[in-house]
Each structure stands twice: as C-alpha cells, then as structure tokens.
Write a structure and sequence with these properties.
The complex is a heterodimer of chains A (about 400) and B (about 300). By secondary structure, chain A is α/β, with parallel strands linked by helices. Chain A has two domains: about 240 residues, Rossmann fold (3-Layer(aba) Sandwich); about 140 residues, Rossmann fold (3-Layer(aba) Sandwich). Chain A has twelve helices and 16 strands. In chain A, β4, α4 and β5 form a beta-alpha-beta unit. Chain B is of the alpha/beta class and about 300 residues long. Chain B is about 35% helix and about 15% strand. Chain B contains twelve helices and eight strands. Chain B has an eight-stranded mixed beta sheet, with helices on both faces. Classes of the chains: A alpha/beta (about 400), B alpha/beta (about 300). β9 of chain A pairs parallel with β2 of chain B.
Chain lengths: ~400, ~300
C-alpha cells in the first residue's frame, strides 16, 4: 500500500520510503521491472501513478535490460528518470549501466542489495552493486531506512550536478533495510522540490532542430578522450557529493558525509563496513569500549567515487583495520571494499595492519558477537603488529 | 501519398557521405521512411551496419535526432524516448514547443528477429507510439555474415557454411512478421525498397497511426549475398516476384496482399545470382532446390488463403 503521509515521523519500510522519495521527486519517466526484494518500490510507485499522485510516465518493461534501456532513451530525451532493482536485475542491466554512464545520463537507481545466483538466494549481500562498481555510476550506501530515503534526494542532486552528469545508485540492504519498518522523518514536498530543483538536460533527443546524435561510434582516435572526461567527472563527483550533503544537512538538520565514523578518533582497532551491518557493529563498539577496549567504526557512504584520501586520513590513527565485505571478489585476495581500503592506506607513512573478513553472504546473520570476534582479532593484530589470516570467511 | 517529384523536393534527412556499402539496401529504406514522417521525427538504431556506417564520430549522417544505445534494445530505447516525449509534453517542457513528434526504431534482422525480439515484443505489447523498421538482409552482415534466424533456407553463411556434409543453413526462416502480427498491433507490413511507392505508402500509413506499427523490409546485401552492387534493387524485386518475400500488410488484423506477380517466377531466378546459394546448383543438391521451392510455394499459398481474413 502506498502511503500518503506528508510530513513528520512515519513508520515505513525501506522500500516504501524509497518509493515515497520517488513520489516526492515525481520523475518524468520511471521504467522498472519487479524483482525481490525491491519489488515493493515499483509496486508502491505504480500505486502513486494509478492514483494520479505523480505525473510520471511509468513504463512497465518486460525485463531489467529493457528497464535501463528505456531509462537511457528517456534520459537522452531530457527527462528526469528513476528506477529500482536488485541482484539479477542489476546484473541483467549490466551492459546498459555502462552505456548510461558513458552517455553521461543522470539516471537515479535504487538498488536493494541481494545476493547473486548461483545458488539462487533472495537475501542480502552486496554482490550485485559491487559487481557494478566499475560501471561508472556514483554509488551511495545506506545504513538505515532514513538514510536510504535521504540518499535518494542526494543521489539525484549529485547525478544532475553540472560538474558530474553521471548516473547514481542508492544501495540499501535487502530485507534488513528494505522490509524493516523504521520510524523515519519525512521531508515535505515543498522542501524536496526546493532541494532537488528543476532539471534541464544539456541535450535532448526531442530537440528536432538541433538534431543531436547520441551514442555515435568512436574509433581509437577519440574513445579514450571520452573515457577520460567520464573519469574526471567521477573525480569531481566527490566534491559535488560533499556540497550536496552539506546543503542537505543545513536545510534538514541531518548531517551526512562521505563516510560515517563512530568512536574512531582514538581507536586502535577499527572495522570498516557498509550499510546495515554498521548498526550491529556500533553495538559491539559500545560494549567493547565499556571494557576499555579502544575500538571504532568507519562506514563508507560514498563508494563511487571512492574517497580514498579522506578514508586513509580517518584510519591513519588505527593500528589495525578489519574490512568487512558482504561480497567476495573471487580473486583469492578478498572483497572489493578491502582492496580499496587497503590500497588507500598504502601511501600512509605508518600503515595500520589490514585484514579482510567476508561475512553475511546470502543473508546470513551478522551478529554483535561476530563484530566482537573481529574486533578482538584486530586488537590482537594491533598489539602484535601481525595479521595471522589476511582474508577469511566469518559468520559461517 | 507523395510523388517522386515531391520526394525529390523534400529535404534529405539521411545525408550522403555515410559509409554503408555501395548497393546496400539500407540507405534507400531509411531515406524513404524518414521522409514519410513528413514532420518532426526521432530515430534510434540497434547496433549493426546502419549504426556503424552512419555515425563514426565526429560525423553523423542523421539530420534528425538520433540515438544508438545497444544491440538488443532499439524498441526499449525508443519506448523510453517516446515516454519522455509524453511526459515533457504534459508539463509543457518540449524543447521546440508543443508539437507532434514521430518515433522510429531501425534494426537489422539480427537485432530484431534474434537478440532484440524480447524488447520488440515488450514495446509492441505496451503500445508505445512508434514505428519499428526491420531491415532484413538475412544474416549478421555487420560482423561478417553469420547466420540469423532470418537467414534463408540453405543459405551459406560464415556460421552455417555450405560444407561437405551440411549444405548451409538447415532451418527455415523465422516468420517475424507473423510473430509481430500476433501482438495485435494496428499495423504491420512487409515491403521492399525496389518498390519505393509501396514502401513509402506503408511508412506514411504506419506513421499516421497512433500506436505501435511495424515494417519488415527486404534489404539486399552485396557483401553477404555475394552479388553485384548494381544488382541489389533487381534482386529485391526478384525476392518479391518469386514470392519469397511477399508484399503484404495487416491493418487492424486484416491481411491484404499488396502485390501478386502476374507470373510467379521460379525461385531459382532469385537464388542463382547469389553466391550464398551457389552450392545448391551442384547436381547432387537438386533435391534441396526442389524442397526450397516447395516451401516457398506452400508459404505463398498460406498467405493467399489468409487474404482478406482477420488474423
């Protein structure tokens, strides 16, 4: 059931909150295909369309590949475009994700994180969005329903930022966040409208007189220049993200940064983890702090672009860092967040020891005791200066 | 309908200087279709000869707004553009002010019969207002003449070569037009560029209709057919006169054959000049030629039986 609340505290699931954010954005076009666990976003949004609460053209496509293809056609026509998916759906879009970013179309996609087959599994891990981490999309991760809701608006602003013009993905954990009801604070429609502003595309397929050509073929004499421009836009997306998050905080009082730190300042051992597992980890931090153990947390929010200098700066005081990945790169060298964080720390004069723990694949619970165990291992590494096992599966 | 004189006075929307082969069937098809729009038109093209040959950056042969995104999704891409048009029109935000804009998607047989069939089916079912043009040259010509499901019976291609034991492609051509008709769209037709008037009439009709429309167009390919460039239009005509490629249309479900050859030519007249069928003319393959002719006769008869009927 689509909700009709306008402002204030409301109990919403992650999916309903994202759908409500989309309703408040009222995009010109939404092309989407249902997939667990993001289905409810598309269902709720379809309800808003059916009830005339948005003026969006909803295209109920026959596959996620066509969903992203239609989003690209619509965005190239100058429309503000949004969609949602998960897992196999994102995987099926893969070809088109690169085309959306290569064509510099600021599409916004909510990805409700779910494991990839095989074996088939509908529960949470980050294999889907991590598989798309090099597709040229800005990626924002969300710990809570509130953050997922807020990220939708911030993602749109970053994507459409004149210095960026790249598509953006908001990631939230399947079931854990998508289906859990949280008490969240909604913006009112006017606030949303003022924050996101109106969108005017640089070029449009509907400009008959200008007759633009989108998606021309490039040969070795020009391709790399296009890619360099795209890469530079991704580099600029970091500053755009900072600007947008600051503006969001100033307007609505909810402060967001490139990442969140929790009791990290004097921590000797730190965990780096994305999304909802950070909540569990914070409980472990508090428990261990009570025992006098100096532990803390860093939770990346902006994963693409990867703010490596800021993350290295924030972690440089720690003696040991355990990076938790809810996805495996299957490279026999750990998960994707681990590779990035470890690489970011390389240029520090005095580097923390770094270890990687792969956890929670396919929705396996990650509990406070798991975080405590990782912290204890990291504290040992901090003390001895040695990491016994570089990469290891936990929560088995 | 516009006369040839009228057409010659219209602005060319598909410019010369593109890099499609001499004798390629695609350019006359595109020129006639864009002219038939007779007003603002937006085009998309699936990956293939037409895309590769017309938009090598920084050049473009398109004097209309144009987009290429991928191979299998021309119908999905155009449905996005058409939906954006509706949305922007609704809120009075069209770049050139409020006006009718037509949408045309072009795809080859590979991008339409095969990899793009799902996207096409979806867009037809959803009822977007667009015309889909399939230029059917009977193989994946852009990548070097590999078989598609549109490849004619016993045609030799690089992935169905006529070998010592297998005489080319063993499967009959998929009847895409029939599949499209099964979507119950307002208009579907088969045509050929040798008959500019038939092609133009059908494109004009299709583009006037609100809703999804489809045209399957014979498109000679000297490179893949192993024929002379100057024979393309003649060969397109022979495909029709032999009844291999009947010209017909299905309007609101009713089938009409637009051209019945006074004297149905033997299929070999179309096959003989084409290198892709060379092996069929070896004495030991006489039976295959007979089988091919029989099947063409049967398909033509099926069409005759359906004439005037509601499908």
């Amino acid at each position: 059931m689509a909700i009709t609340a306008t402002k204030g505290q409301t109990g919403l699931t992650g999916n309903s909150a994202v759908a409500y954010a989309m309703k408040q954005v009222n995009p010109d076009v939404c092309a989407a295909y249902p997939i667990t666990p993001s289905t409810q976003i598309v269902e709720d949004f379809s309800g808003y369309v059916a009830d005339g609460e948005v003026t969006t053209e909803l295209i109920t496509v026959e596959s996620e590949h066509s969903a992203m293809s239609a989003c690209i056609g619509a965005a190239a026509a100058g429309a503000r475009v949004m969609t949602a998916t998960s897992s196999q759906g994102l995987a099926l879009m893969w070809e088109m994700l690169y085309i959306a970013s290569g064509m510099r179309l600021p599409i916004v996609l909510a990805n409700v994180n779910r494991a990839l087959s095989a074996p088939i599994n509908i529960h949470c891990d980050h294999s889907d969005s991590m598989g798309a981490r090099d597709s040229g999309w800005v990626q924002l991760y969300s710990e809570t329903v509130q953050e997922a809701y807020d990220n939708v608006f911030m993602a749109l602003r970053i994507a459409e930022h004149k210095d960026v013009l790249l598509p953006a993905m908001v990631c939230l954990d399947g079931f854990i966040t998508s289906h859990a009801i949280e008490n969240i604070s909604l913006l009112d429609d006017q606030e949303v409208r003022q924050f996101i502003g109106s969108y005017s595309a640089k070029a449009s397929l509907l400009d008959i007189e200008g007759a633009p050509t989108f998606g021309a073929m490039t040969l070795p004499d020009t391709y790399i220049e296009f890619k360099r421009q795209q890469s530079e836009a991704m580099t600029r997306a970091k500053d755009a993200a900072i600007e947008v998050m600051k503006d969001f905080g100033k307007r609505f009082g909810r402060e967001y940064g490139l990442f969140e730190t929790y009791r990290l300042e004097d921590a000797e051992a730190a965990i780096v983890v994305l999304n909802s597992a950070a909540g569990t980890t914070k409980v472990a931090v508090d428990a261990l702090r009570k025992e006098g153990k100096k532990v803390g947390l860093l939770r990346p929010r902006l994963f693409r672009p990867f703010p490596w200098q800021e993350i290295a700066e924030a972690l440089k005081g720690a003696k040991a860092v355990a990076v938790l990945d809810r996805a495996d790169s299957m490279n026999a060298f750990g998960g994707p967040v681990f590779s990035e964080v470890r690489s970011a720390l390389y240029d520090l004069d005095s580097r923390p020891r770094v270890m990687n723990r792969i956890y929670g694949l396919g929705g396996r619970d990650y509990k406070v005791k798991d975080a405590v165990e990782v912290f204890n291992e990291a504290l040992k590494a901090a003390e001895t200066g040695r990491v016994d096992t570089l990469v290891k599966y936990i929560t088995l | 309908m516009a006369t040839l004189k009228d057409l010659s006075r219209q602005q060319e929307l598909f410019s010369g200087g593109h890099r499609l082969c001499a004798g390629c069937g695609i350019p006359p098809i595109v020129r006639l279709v864009l002219r038939a729009a007779n007003g603002p038109v937006v085009a998309t093209t699936a990956t293939g000869c037409l895309e590769v040959g017309t938009t090598i950056y920084p050049y473009t042969a398109w004097r209309v707004p144009w987009i290429h995104s991928a191979f299998e999704n021309a119908a999905a891409t155009i449905s996005g553009a058409e939906s954006a048009y509706k949305a922007l029109r609704k809120r009075g935000a069209l770049p050139g002010g409020d006006r009718e804009i037509k949408f045309v998607a072009f795809g080859g047989d590979g991008g339409t019969y095969d990899i793009g069939l799902q996207a096409l089916s979806g867009a037809l079912e959803r009822g977007h207002n667009f015309l889909y043009i399939c230029y059917d040259n009977g193989a994946y010509m852009n990548t070097g003449i590999q078989r598609s499901s549109a490849t004619p019976f016993y045609s030799s291609t690089t992935t169905s070569p006529a070998g010592q034991v297998i005489p080319g492609k063993k499967q009959w051509r998929k009847d895409l037009t029939r599949i499209v008709v099964a979507h119950d769209i307002p208009y579907a037709a088969q045509t050929s560029p040798h008959n500019w008037s038939d092609l133009s009439k059908k494109a004009e009709k299709a583009l006037k209709i609100q809703g999804p429309t489809f045209m399957n167009v014979m498109s000679p390919c000297p490179l893949g057919w192993y024929t002379k460039s100057e024979d393309s239009i003649k060969l397109a005509k022979l495909s029709v006169d032999t009844c291999y490629w009947p010209l017909y249309e299905v309007e609101n479900g009713v089938l009409k054959i637009n051209y019945k050859p006074r004297e149905k030519k033997p299929l070999v007249e179309w096959l003989k000049p084409q290198g892709r069928f060379k092996h069929l003319f070896k004495p030991e393959n006489a039976g295959l030629l007979e089988e091919f002719q029989d099947r063409v006769d049967a398909e033509w008869q099926r069409l005759l039986d359906l004439e005037g009927k509601r499908l």
